[in-house]
Amino acid sequence: MPIAQNPLSVEVTLPREDVALLTVQGYLDVDTATEFQHHLANQLHHGRRHFLLDLSAVPFMDSSGMNIILRVYQEVREIPGSVHIIDPTPAVRRILDLTGVSITVPVSKSVDDALALVDGGAVPEPGAAGTSGQEEA
């Protein structure tokens, strides 16, 4: 599948000086993950500590996209900072849940919910409001 059919669009906004909101549209896969990684690295370079990843317009994500999310999650934990996934599509949410990424990286329904977690500095327990709603087995 040519890249031109499913280009990746990443819009970066700054809700606050230390928070970057990346609104991603398109397929997040092996063909587009490097572009996504460049956007994240640029924001890290500019001192952002908290990353809100709006995946509501991502119809598909493969392991390349998940690896980028987990890599930035590990990097910002040392700062300390945080990564939050916002409103993933059902297909992407299923991948996040099946691989356990949604247990590691908080998933919120909205930017406001994610910002509340940033402000609180705590990561909710799985099953808490604004997260997956699933109980651990």
UniProtKB/TrEMBL annotation:
<comment type="similarity">
    <text>Belongs to the anti-sigma-factor antagonist family.</text>
</comment>
<dbReference type="Pfam" id="PF01740">
    <property type="entry name" value="STAS"/>
</dbReference>
<dbReference type="InterPro" id="IPR003658">
    <property type="entry name" value="Anti-sigma_ant"/>
</dbReference>
<dbReference type="InterPro" id="IPR036513">
    <property type="entry name" value="STAS_dom_sf"/>
</dbReference>
<dbReference type="GO" id="GO:0043856">
    <property type="term" value="F:anti-sigma factor antagonist activity"/>
</dbReference>
<protein>
    <recommendedName>
        <fullName>Anti-sigma factor antagonist</fullName>
    </recommendedName>
</protein>
<dbReference type="InterPro" id="IPR002645">
    <property type="entry name" value="STAS_dom"/>
</dbReference>
<feature type="domain" description="STAS">
    <location>
        <begin position="17"/>
        <end position="118"/>
    </location>
</feature>
